[in-house]
Recover the amino acids of this structure.
């Protein structure tokens, strides 16, 4: 419903104060668009709007300047109503160069506003963007409103007093643009001033120049309003529950959730990681939280990262490791070791497009099979999945809880979208979470004997720290004898231990599945997991507003599944499972519950759009049999665009010069 | 190793109730006894001693030691041990690996545990063959080794474990062999070293690579081909009749005859365990023209990884607030509703809601 309002063109009378607006900032990866977007997000949150963002940046860190595949874009959807997706189509497109215009133009709503920097529409840049003629002059932008002027020149002029070189002066362009955007949406500049002063502490000339550029952009808005398409809009604050709020990305939320989880378990945390996109952000965040009893270890490879975490768990800390698909694959054998030795461990998988290197910076949900089934032997492991950046906090705590209570590795699934996207987050009260303090065994548990593999009522074995007098014992990856943990290859023992491991995980206590929107039985249930929450929720809400009998069920516990889920699904005539993969969760549901779950899949590296899901829901109610489910095509207007982060090799050699600017 | 109060044990205290399952005559038995003999001598405490191994014949070792033990996965023991040591630096860790486990599948981890200088003793049992998988050639097998996977003889150049370790940045490199009576002395020196101590132990695989070290390691009769190094002592062998000197023209080592014990006039080098240049020459010294260098080849400690990690924690935590509620609300935030309870500044130490009981 938020985006419904935004579907009205900006210049209509009703949109003077629209409920929600979608803005996309697009520029060269050196133009600082992610920074601009991030700061705009912050000021939007401070203004009290609900919001969701979608950052899209190229896989090539320094793609050649001005090229189509070097375009970096940041989309934000904000409004006075609850926002759960980054928005389908933008109302405003800020294009810092021809390539940014070309790759993002088709997404813009008819009647939407283009803000373009003419200073970058040079012959050379037009060539790089494969424009035969300047689109700002040839009438091809007729169905949109265009505000084109020389932002580069305006910026250079604004920062002149600070004596920067031309190159450094142009780096302030993003702040100029941000200033204009702040004016457009009636946002305060104060927080950005503070942020710039903090960022350039010790470099007052850079702070001054950036602030001057920001103010100049803002002032330009006021002046330009007198004529032309630029209008100031005021988006009313959202009505939120009282409390303290901040913006948070999934990577931050997971990091904080892990810290909270370790505290609730009353354990120090050991985090073993290895750089990989998009998971590295978690390592970066945790590396700054050492005062919370966090040890971060950047290992020599993915395998060492998990093995060190297992070693730390063995020694009595909460071992955590994190990666993305290819790295998770490398960790597979060590996960088996943690399962066999029955040590707690949290494994975070920030999923990205695969297989192999795949799409490192794009999102996908295609590691579900890997999480649930992807190990040698019968190697069951709990799997928890986060639905949004804020939800990732609670999921991380849940993963820690299961790991220490059941002495098992736990996989926490997130994805590139959740990891990078930001949303306002009502800061939770840590006291709201029930502590789950760990008890280590400190004396023999069978008279005078130690039984390292004796099980409690949950099926968990005791956690015994090396260093404890009198409890010396040996563990390892070879099959263990029941109770004693000695090496034992005997047939009946392997059967007993396999059953024990499977039974322990099957018995993990997970909350009953709720229905997050709609009735608990009826015609259609749309069942999602992970980051598809936002678009599914909006699509179901819209369909229900039209009187359609559809419910939204969103599953956090992928393994083991909630005990009531089968019964719940059987209460619906139809079950639709939208996923950003080829139907992996659908298969699990069919297998576990013999339910006729229909897949709706999208594997373009793009999240679902609300409209796509609405259409899919509609097919269950259109009276045409057999057209339900299926595959959603790649959306050429959606982020990531076809060009983003993709060098097709057609750019002439003389245009392939790499620029030297940081993002 | 760590500074520990000496703990009184006997060899028997270090034996487990598990049946030792190496092949009869395997060199591992002798190494096991040497280790079980060494630990009481250094006052080791079984409760704080951890044996960590990878996969292979050698890696069965922890099951036979009455201490804590972790038999991990192939090649990854150094990574697991690094995590154990960082989580609890008070533990005394012995790593057990082999030429396949440590230099083939686990070469990467071995390199990094040495370069980081994580405080532990690393025993690499080198038998120049894959035993547990039934006799394939290994990364230390000599060129021409015939094995099931190289029926016509191997043609890759063998890795030299001690040279690998030194090249990776090891600050302690020692050598011994399974049946040597000096092995405990080498283990003791490794244990006394603060940091990653690498010990190459030549080990006789009687089934798949029998007696390949007999030229210098047979129980009797090969003494003349052993150069036992001792800090501050001249590098003499063959009953003091030969020594190692530096060829100053060619900048390499040479064997010189020593008559009547007058090693000074023969320019025999006095061993200095802190001399890294000489250590490089010793690990590269080809057996045959030269004797086998044994004992402590190099020992020059520097600060350990776990100490640096602990120090950084202290530094980066100094003066920082460890209130989780505050951390969650950190950064630029905003408050909705005038009456909303401020979840941050009103926290009791237990971080509960205002007025709530301390959950701890």
């Amino acid at each position: 419903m938020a985006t419904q309002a935004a579907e009205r063109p900006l210049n209509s009378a009703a949109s003077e104060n629209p409920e929600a607006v979608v803005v996309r900032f697009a520029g060269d990866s050196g133009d600082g668009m992610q920074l601009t977007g991030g700061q705009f997000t912050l000021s939007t949150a401070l203004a009290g709007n609900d919001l969701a963002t979608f950052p899209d940046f190229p896989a090539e860190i320094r793609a050649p300047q001005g090229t189509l595949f070097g375009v970096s874009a940041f989309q934000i959807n904000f409004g006075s109503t609850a926002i759960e997706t980054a928005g389908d189509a933008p109302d405003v497109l800020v294009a810092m160069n021809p390539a940014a215009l070309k790759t993002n133009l088709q997404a813009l709503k008819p009647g939407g506003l283009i803000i373009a920097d003419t200073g970058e529409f040079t012959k050379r840049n037009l060539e790089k963007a494969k424009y035969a003629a300047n689109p700002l002059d040839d009438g091809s932008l007729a169905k949109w409103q265009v505000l084109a002027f020389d932002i580069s020149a305006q910026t250079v002029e604004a920062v002149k007093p600070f004596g920067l070189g031309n190159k450094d002066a142009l780096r302030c362009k993003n702040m100029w643009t941000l200033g204009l955007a702040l004016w457009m949406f009636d946002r305060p500049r104060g927080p950005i001033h503070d942020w710039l002063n903090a960022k350039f502490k010790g470099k007052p000339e850079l702070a001054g120049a950036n602030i001057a550029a920001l103010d100049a952009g803002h002032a330009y808005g006021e002046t330009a309003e007198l004529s032309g398409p630029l209008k100031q809009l005021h988006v009313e604050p959202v009505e939120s529950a009282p409390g303290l709020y901040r913006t948070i990305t999934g990577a931050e939320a997971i990091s904080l959730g892990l810290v909270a989880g370790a505290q609730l378990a009353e354990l120090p945390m050991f985090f073993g990681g290895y750089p990989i996109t998009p998971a590295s952000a978690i390592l970066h965040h945790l590396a700054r939280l050492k005062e919370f009893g966090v040890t971060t270890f950047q290992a020599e490879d993915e395998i060492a990262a998990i093995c060190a975490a297992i070693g730390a768990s063995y020694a009595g800390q909460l071992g955590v490791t994190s990666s993305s698909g290819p790295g998770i694959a490398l960790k597979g054998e060590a996960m088996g070791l943690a399962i066999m030795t029955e040590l707690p461990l949290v494994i975070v998988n920030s999923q990205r497009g695969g297989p192999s290197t795949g799409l490192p910076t794009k999102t996908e949900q295609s590691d579900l099979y890997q999480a649930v089934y992807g190990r040698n032997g019968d190697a069951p492991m709990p799997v928890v999945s986060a639905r949004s950046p804020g939800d990732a906090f609670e999921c991380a705590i849940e993963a820690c809880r299961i790991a220490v209570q059941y002495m098992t590795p736990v996989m926490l699934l997130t994805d590139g979208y959740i990891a990078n996207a930001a949303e306002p987050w009502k800061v939770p009260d840590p006291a709201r979470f029930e502590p789950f303090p760990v008890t280590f065994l400190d004396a023999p548990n069978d008279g005078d004997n130690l039984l390292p593999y004796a099980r409690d009522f949950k099926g968990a074995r005791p956690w015994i720290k090396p260093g404890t007098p009198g409890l010396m014992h040996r563990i390892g990856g070879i099959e263990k004898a029941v109770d004693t943990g000695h090496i034992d290859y005997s047939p009946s023992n392997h059967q007993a231990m396999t059953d024990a491991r499977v039974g322990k995980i099957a018995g993990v206590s997970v909350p009953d599945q709720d229905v997050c929107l709609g009735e608990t039985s009826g015609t259609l249930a749309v069942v999602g997991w992970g980051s598809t929450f936002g678009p599914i929720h909006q699509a179901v809400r819209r369909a229900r507003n039209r009187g359609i009998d559809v419910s939204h069920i969103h599953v956090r516990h992928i393994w083991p599944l909630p005990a009531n889920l089968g019964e719940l699904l059987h209460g619906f005539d139809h079950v639709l499972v939208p996923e950003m993969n080829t139907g992996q969760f659908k298969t699990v549901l069919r297998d576990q519950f013999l339910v006729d779950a229909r897949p709706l899949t999208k594997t373009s590296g793009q999240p679902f759009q609300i409209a796509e899901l609405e259409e899919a829901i509609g097919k269950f109610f259109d009276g045409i049999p057999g057209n339900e489910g299926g595959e959603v095509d790649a959306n050429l207007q959606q982020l990531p665009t076809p060009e983003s982060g993709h060098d097709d090799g057609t750019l002439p050699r003389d245009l392939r010069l790499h620029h030297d600017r940081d993002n | 190793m760590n500074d520990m109060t000496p703990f009184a044990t006997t060899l028997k205290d270090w034996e487990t109730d598990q049946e030792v399952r190496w092949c009869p005559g395997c060199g591992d038995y002798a190494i096991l006894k040497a280790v079980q003999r060494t630990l009481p001598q250094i006052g080791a405490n079984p409760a704080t001693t951890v044996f960590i191994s990878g996969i292979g014949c050698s890696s069965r070792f922890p099951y036979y030691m009455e201490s804590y033990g972790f038999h991990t996965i192939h090649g990854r023991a150094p990574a697991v041990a690094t995590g154990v040591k960082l989580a609890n630096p008070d533990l005394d860790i012995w790593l057990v690996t082999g030429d396949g486990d440590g230099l083939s599948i686990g070469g990467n981890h071995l390199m990094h545990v040495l370069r980081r200088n994580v405080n532990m003793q690393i025993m690499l049992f080198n038998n120049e063959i894959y035993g547990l998988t039934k006799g394939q050639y290994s990364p230390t097998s000599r060129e021409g080794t015939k094995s099931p996977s190289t029926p016509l003889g191997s043609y890759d150049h063998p890795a030299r474990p001690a040279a690998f370790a030194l090249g990776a940045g090891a600050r302690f490199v020692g050598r011994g062999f399974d049946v040597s009576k000096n092995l405990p002395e080498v283990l003791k020196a490794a244990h006394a070293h603060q940091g990653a101590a690498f010990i190459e132990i030549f080990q006789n695989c009687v089934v798949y690579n029998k007696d390949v070290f007999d030229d210098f390691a047979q129980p009797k009769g090969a003494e003349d081909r052993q150069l036992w190094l001792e800090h501050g002592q001249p590098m003499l062998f063959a009953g003091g009749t030969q020594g190692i000197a530096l060829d100053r023209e060619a900048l390499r080592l040479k064997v010189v005859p020593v008559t009547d014990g007058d090693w000074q006039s023969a320019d025999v080098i006095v061993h200095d365990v802190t001399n890294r240049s000489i250590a490089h020459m010793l690990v590269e010294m080809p057996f045959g023209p030269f004797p086998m260098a044994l004992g402590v080849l190099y020992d020059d400690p520097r600060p350990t990884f776990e100490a640096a990690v602990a120090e950084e924690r202290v530094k980066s935590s100094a003066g920082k607030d460890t209130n989780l509620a505050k951390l969650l609300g950190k950064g630029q935030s905003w408050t909705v509703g005038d009456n909303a309870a401020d979840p941050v500044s009103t926290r009791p130490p237990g971080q509960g809601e205002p007025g709530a009981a301390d959950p701890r």
Remarks:
- Residues 27-41 of chain B form the longest helix (15 residues).
